[in-house]
Amino acid sequence: xxxxxxxxxxxxxxxxxxxxxxxxxxxxxxxxxxxxxxxxxxxxxxxxxxxxxxxxxxxxxxxxxxxxxxxxxxxxxxxxxxxxxxxxxxxxxxxxxxxxxxxxxxxxxxxxxxxxxxxxxxxxxxxxxxxxxxxxxxxxxxxxxxxxxxxxxxxxxxxxxxxxxxxxxxxxxxxxxxxxxxxxxxxxxxxxxxxxxxxxxxxxxxxxxxxxxxxxxxxxxxxxxxxxxxxxxxxxxxxxxxxxxxxxxxxxxxxxxxxxxxxxxxxxxxx
Length: 271
Ligand SMILES: Cc1cc2nc3c(=O)[nH]c(=O)nc-3n(C[C@H](O)[C@H](O)[C@H](O)COP(=O)(O)OP(=O)(O)OC[C@H]3O[C@@H](n4cnc5c(N)ncnc54)[C@H](O)[C@@H]3O)c2cc1C
Description:
By secondary structure, the chain is of the alpha/beta class.
């Protein structure tokens, strides 16, 4: 498996993280989830809440890939623009799409509260405008959101903006109180804990290497054993390429790794 660089979120964990064992044996479960990122963890918890016997196999550590390396922003829009959906769908369907994102954010807040996950979740997300053109675009988009989606963000004026972001550089901002920011690895670890403290099982350092159908069951092979399950859920993102299965190889060609880098330092001296 690829070894990825050390990251801020891992380094900023104040307490040692829980360690999960690696998978051994040949064991039956209802569902096998491959991948311990947000997709696998949330799905495992959803299914466990519905009474299914779930096992999650993670190749490395929980939150090792994108889910432990992202910005931690809870932004209530899809990447790109909602306008793309409006171009391809009627308004009612575009509204449903945006509703999905809002439901996800609500669900996330409920889940954090329900399982008492300490992930530094701070609610409030501001889109701030830095040029007069940005101001005009942001203002038009806020009016459009209110008129077509019934969704109203709070408009923050230039005088007010330093109270929120500690910078006077921006001209205005739109505050979405339902968005926010969290510590992504803490969230991932909290979800894993909720699974492991329930009826589910979580394994680390347990890459799934391939799967085969056996009658109406699926056999998922790992280094030291196999999971026999009724259903398999692949949530291994770019790791799909490491699985020896035709479908995984086909999917792997359609998933691209993406990176972005941020460097932060203590305040610099003048020199
Ligand atoms: C730089 C960057 C910034 C981002 N910022 C944000 C943001 O601010 N807000 C936001 O909402 N989203 C953000 N995203 C997107 C978000 O991080 C991803 O959509 C999300 O984490 C994907 O989760 P996942 O579970 O699908 O994949 P991953 O988190 O990549 O999880 C896949 C897991 O599968 C494991 N795995 C792989 N192969 C195997 C195998 N064979 N067997 C077992 N396990 C395996 C991996 O080790 C990994 O842990 C960002 C993404 C990137 C890359």
